[in-house]
Amino acid sequence: MPADKPTLNGAKGLAIPTLTPEEEDQIVHARITNEERPLKRVLKRFHQYTNAAHPTALSLPSPNGPTGLNGSVEDAREAFLVELASFQLLLKKSAMICEAEARQVEEYQREKQRIDLEHNTLRGQIEQLKTALDEAQVTRKRKIEYDLIAEKVNTLPSREELERSIEDLENDLVTIHDEHESQTRAIQSQKVALDSIITDLGSLRFISGDPTTSLAPSQRGTPALDGEGAEDLETSQPSADTPVPSKGDEKEEGEEGEENPPEAETNGDIEMGEVEEDTRSSRTRKAREELEEGEATDASSELSEPPDDT
User: Fold this and answer.
1) What are the beta bridge partners of residue 12?
2) Contact 254, 247 (CB under 8 A)
3) What average pLDDT does the segment 13-34 reach?
4) Is 227 left (phi over 0), alpha (psi -120 to 50) or beta?
5) What is the pTM of this model?
6) Nearest residue to 222 via CA among 183, 181, 185, 193
7) Per-residue buried b or exposed e for 34-45, using 16+ beta carbons within 10 Å of the residue's own CB
8) CB burial class (10 A; 0-12, 13-18, 19+) of residue 52?
């Protein structure tokens, strides 16, 4: 146990504990915020009243006697009561101020809670408005795109018009196909007719027996045919490689087959010479005319022109 510290009178007493820094700060703060002068005045009046009511032996007697002493006690008492009443008023005022401050603190807390609640509400509303704004922007963008597409669609013809145009095109295609088939059949028939004409001309040339003319193929080629017409032409047209017998060859064959006596030949040369020359000239002229007609027909006839496939 620590030893007791001596007091001012030299007597031993209890040791006063030292204050902590926090307690010292509280005392300093209380002295700053609470004014001690009213309390000191009350204490001063109280000491004056006690000294007047209970004079000590050391106090000097009053010059006025007991009457002056009683008057001073009453005055000290009245002054003490007045000072005590003013101090009570001051305490009541301080209490009222404390209550007002407490109410203000409560009001501040309620206002703070209300502001916090309103802040949270406004924050939620802001989030909702942001979401609504985003949705409105997306809706506006889609509406603009829809308007553009609708404008493009409105520029296009209707479904009925498109169906009618498709039907018209299909009908045109059918008509064109029929016309193409008819033209193809007509061209085939014309080719067959041209082949028959060429065959007839060749046979006429062969029948005419003109030595100057032969059944050599024409320099102008016949257009190739497709299908049955080409087969008919190949079968009916004589081959160019086949030799055409001339009149001299026939005579040689006749001489080989039957030898006439030289006397008959010499006798008939003069008589038949003029007739043979006349017949030969007439045949040659006729063959030339037919040849010219055939060449003119090959050059100018529409049947001889190659078909326009386009």
Assistant:
1) 6
2) no
3) 78
4) left
5) 0.34
6) 193
7) eeeeeeebbeeb
8) buried
